[in-house]
């Protein structure tokens, strides 16, 4: 399972979606759509930022500061949204408003709800990446993180295959099927320069 699939699975679990819905006032389907669309964008932007030596050092510092434990739902509930907003500004930079608008259109949530959800998601994402990057070789079940190669075609294809099987009824939790397809993802990813 790729990093993207692992993160999507944990962030779109029923308990995670319930927590995010309560935080934002959206429903679980909207949250699933938002998280499914936002996660590849955030990972791509993080990867782009980490492609320079100073960006990689900055990411390493951020990962060392975000080492929360507990379930993703618990982390979503306890997330420091002020910290999350700073993380988002750093990750997305000048693309923030266009990304927020695109995610709002995709998910059916208002820009404020998207901002609230992403501000909770950002510190949880860093904690998840921190946990994954600190793995020991004896734990091969968790994917290693190689931020130097970005989100490659296999990550995108794996993501699209996962969404196709979810929409085809193969998902274990059909209530979280997102109305989102690969062209939507590519459109949103193209907003990042």
Protein traits:
193 residues; mainly alpha; globular
Could you walk me through the main structural features you see in this protein, from its secondary elements to its overall organization?
The chain is an all-alpha fold and 193 residues long. It has one domain. Helix content is 68%, strand content 0%. The protein is built from 10 helices and no strands. α2 (14-24) crosses α3. The protein is globular and about 40 Å long.
Outline the fold blueprint.
Elements: H1 3-11, H2 14-24, H3 28-49, H4 53-65, H5 72-78, H6 81-92, H7 96-107, H8 111-133, H9 153-167, H10 182-189
Helix pairs in contact: 1-3, 2-3, 2-5, 3-7, 3-8, 3-10, 4-8, 5-8, 6-8, 7-8
Helix/strand order, N-terminal first? HHHHHHHHHH
Output mean pLDDT.
75
Largest sheet: none
Going by helix content, strand content and strand pairing, the class is: mainly alpha
Brief overview, please?
This protein is mainly alpha-helical. The chain contains ten helices and no strands. Helix 2 (14-24) runs parallel beside helix 5 (72-78), helix 3 (28-49) packs antiparallel against helix 7 (96-107) and helix 3 (28-49) packs across helix 10.
């Amino acid at each position: 399972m790729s990093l993207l699939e692992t993160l999507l699975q944990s962030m779109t679990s029923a308990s995670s979606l319930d927590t995010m819905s309560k935080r934002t006032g959206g429903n679980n389907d909207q949250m699933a759509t938002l998280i499914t669309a936002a996660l590849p964008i955030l990972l791509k932007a993080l990867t782009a930022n980490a492609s320079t030596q100073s960006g990689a050092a900055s990411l390493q510092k951020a990962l060392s500061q975000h080492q929360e434990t507990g379930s993703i739902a618990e982390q979503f509930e306890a997330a420091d949204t002020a910290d999350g907003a700073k993380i988002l500004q750093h990750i997305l930079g000048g693309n923030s408003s266009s990304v927020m608008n695109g995610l709002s259109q995709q998910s059916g949530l208002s820009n404020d709800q998207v901002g609230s959800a992403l501000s909770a998601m950002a510190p949880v994402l860093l904690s998840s990446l921190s946990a994954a990057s600190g793995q020991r070789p004896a734990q091969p079940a968790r994917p290693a993180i190689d931020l130097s190669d970005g989100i490659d075609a296999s990550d995108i294809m794996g993501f699209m295959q996962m969404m196709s099987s979810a929409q085809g009824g193969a998902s274990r939790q059909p209530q979280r099927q997102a109305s989102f397809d690969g062209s939507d993802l590519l459109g949103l990813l193209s907003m990042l320069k």
